[in-house]
Amino acid sequence: MNLNRRSLLKLSTAAMALGITGLPARAQAIDELVIAYNVTLPSWDPTVGPSAVNPTIQGLYQSVFDQYILQQPDLKPAPGLLTEWGWSEDKKQVWMTVREGVKWHDGSDFTAEDVAWSLARVANPETGSPIQFVWGTLANHRVEGNKVIADVTQFDPTIFKWMYFLTGYVLPKAYYEKVGAEGFEAAPIGTGPYMVEKFERNAFVRLKANENYWGGAPEFKTVTIKFVPDAAARVAEVESGNAHVTLEMPYEEYDRLKGGPLAGVATPISDIGMIFLNDIEVMTDPNVRKAAAHAIDKQTIIDRLLSGYGVKIDTLQTPEYEAYDPSITVEYSPEKAVELLAASGYSVDNPVKFKIQTTKGFKPKDYEMIQAIVGLWRKVGIEAEIEVYEIAKHYELRAADQLAPAAFYNWGNSVGDPTTSTGFAMFGPSPHSVWDGQDLIDMIGPLWGEADEAKRIAGWKAVDKFVAENALAIPLLQYVQPILHAPGVVVTPHASGALLPHLMKRA
Amino acid sequence: MRLLRTFLMRLATTAVTLFGVAVIVFVVIRVVPGNPIAMMLPPGATEADVARLSALYGLDKSIPQQFLIWAGGVLQGDFGTSITTRQPVLALVLGRLPATLELSVMALVMAVIIGGFAALTGTRLRGTRTEGAIDVANGMALSVPDFLWGLVLILMFGVLVPIFHISGRVTPSLDLPFVTNFYLFESLIRLRLDLWADIVAHMFMPALALAIPLSAIIGQLLKQSLKETMHLDYVTLSRTKGYGENHVILREALPNAILPTLTLVGVQFTFLIGGTVIIERLFSYEGLGNMAIDAVINRDLPLIQGIVILFAAIFTAVNLLVDLAYAALNPRLRHA
């Protein structure tokens, strides 16, 4: 090709025009679904490393891999790769029936061996699973026909719930052993609704529909998930028609765009906002804790700061959770707060003082919410100093039990079991608990191994009541996840917060 | 000879600088709050789980021990393994470096063109309203930070008149025949102008956002230098010889006036690479900066170390090149 300056300019202009006109348009029929996702995907192994326990990434994993048990959009379990499961009478063994006729993305058969191997792999401490302490309660995994049996080394009533929670994924034994960890990272396969076609770390993943998916072939045959961490850029992506679906944008932006050029869906998810109270300094005084809880007008904060997108909660359970008890309430009563503080010698003129820590921008309006709460506290005689910290610092301080007397945090619990909300948050011996009261430890202790399910749930409700009555933590709200999408797409939201392309249909 | 001695001296100081940076970064990221193990473990984990994972990632040893192990690996070309991606750090960092370099170079070229044009036009039309308008535009470009320019560009060319891509480096559906990660360069070499146009359509807005503040700096400094040079005797002499104003500015004044600007461009280029961190994040551009933010959020210690060391190496290398270029271009230094 004879290329001179003039011809290069001409070609460049033409090619630029091609590139520009190649931009997708919202009005066009959707052949390839494009999703602007709010996080990046660092690693493809859903069972080890930090990504495996990052709740925001689970939607990506669930597009490619299947969990042992399927979790429906309302958080309820359903038959997945396991069709039935349970304990032996004496609770010394678990059994699982494996679905037949399922294929891996490479066309090989999915078998019970894959399930047994996957469970044994994450139970092995050398694998590096962050959830090994759960998977390690099962041992001696073996296959009997299309059943997997394992011995229970320590009874955990939530073991089957973990099978649709973090790290609860089935990986291909033969393929993984053949290609190794590095090969799997480069070319991951699962049994999920989509197959990985192309992956650029920090940029995008392109998925192709698994036509043989046991749950039915997905409607969109090709899905591109672009990783766009910046909320303004994500909104611009859908507003310009470059993407068809996006999530987690400021509620003001959601209100501006839904019902206009875009459609929207905003439903409560399993994340809650709460304030940890540490049993140090003034927080050992029950009057101060209770006053702090009564002085917060949660509904007004939700209405004013979050445009009404939130559900007020008074326990660490949300209405979708099994141990949710609507009779447990904490009244908003500044008068009661003033009385309680007065009983301990505090007033507006002589306020009780403590520090409250919060993230800023980690969750919607987190800092602004704490500012509002501090304002409400000031009116009743509480002077709180705000300290902003990064989420990484929160984890480290919480693990070392060095949080301030009050600390804002968001807690996710997509399996909805009370052990993974109230249990882990409030059980003193856990390195991640903040309140270490012996009375609470005595209440929670027996519940970990309680085999009678009704008794177990009733026990957790009693714990929640005790926590609320003594203000040992201050639950604030259940978050609502905003999703914007092109009118040509119907999005089914999942209460876990996972955005799942195989649940999307053409309008 | 003197140039060679200077070069060797600078190389030696560069090695010391990099070692110092490595020590500081290594210690600081381990001392500041934010332990990757604490972030990884769910609330039900026990102390034994913490100890098990700390040992797995080599974080159970003392900081000096960890440094010695890491430094020993680095000397053999092993920068460790990323905690989050479970990939070798060196491969990850080198894989992203071309994207950031291409973006920075494109931004630099844009800045030089815009700034140079503004300076030459302002000098040519000095004392007129056009010069005043250029000064005002310069002031605006300088006072607004690059990420805000990025948001303005997204609104203008991404949403209102959607002619450029908002995120990414290349359209996901395109098949890339490249063997290197220098997509822009390689698409030109292969004469794949369709790919080149797509890459430029992705790079244009982030590069321009980075270029605007820098172009203002270049424009101001170059115009100032040109104005000062225009009063020198040799310029007056060339005018008396009958040369036109354009010739006087471009051929006589510019070669001398450009030297301070050249030094500034070199220094600013290193800041430009630093600036890519925010801009790459905003535009989801798959470069080092975007990766650096993820690494910091996830407290991926080996990856943070690798990225910082690489940034430090680029800074020192660019400064070295600028010094050598300055020495080569300046006759007083060249013939000293």
Short description:
The complex is a heterodimer of chains A (507) and B (336). Chain A has 17 helices and 19 strands. Chain A has 507 residues and is α+β, with helices and mostly antiparallel strands.
Question: Explain this structure to me?
Answer:
The complex is a heterodimer of chains A (507) and B (336). With 507 residues, chain A is an alpha+beta fold. Chain A has 17 helices and 19 strands. Chain A has helices at residues 5-21, 49-52, 58-64, 112-123, 132-135, 159-162, 173-186, 231-240, 251-257, 286-294, 298-305, 334-343, 366-380, 391-399, 422-426, 438-444, 453-470, and strands spanning 32-37, 70-71, 77-78, 82-87, 93-98, 138-144, 147-152, 194-200, 204-209, 222-227, 245-247, 263-277, 310-312, 352-358, 382-388, 406-412, 473-485, 489-490, 505-506. In chain A, the strands form four sheets. In chain A, strands 1, 8, 9, 10, 11, 12, 13, 14, 15, 16 and 17 form an eleven-stranded mixed beta sheet that branches. A four-stranded antiparallel beta sheet of chain A has the order 4-5-7-6, with helices on one face. Residues 14-27 of chain A have low confidence and may be disordered. In chain B, helix 8 crosses helix 9 and helix 11 runs parallel beside helix 12. Chain B has helices at residues 2-31, 36-40, 47-56, 63-75, 89-124, 129-143, 146-160, 183-189, 193-230, 233-240, 245-282, 288-297, 301-329, 331-334. Chain B starts with a helix and ends with a helix. The chains are: A alpha+beta (507), B mainly alpha (336). At the A-B interface, helix 1, helix 2, helix 5, strand 10 and helix 8 of A face helix 2, helix 3, helix 7, helix 9 and helix 12 of B.
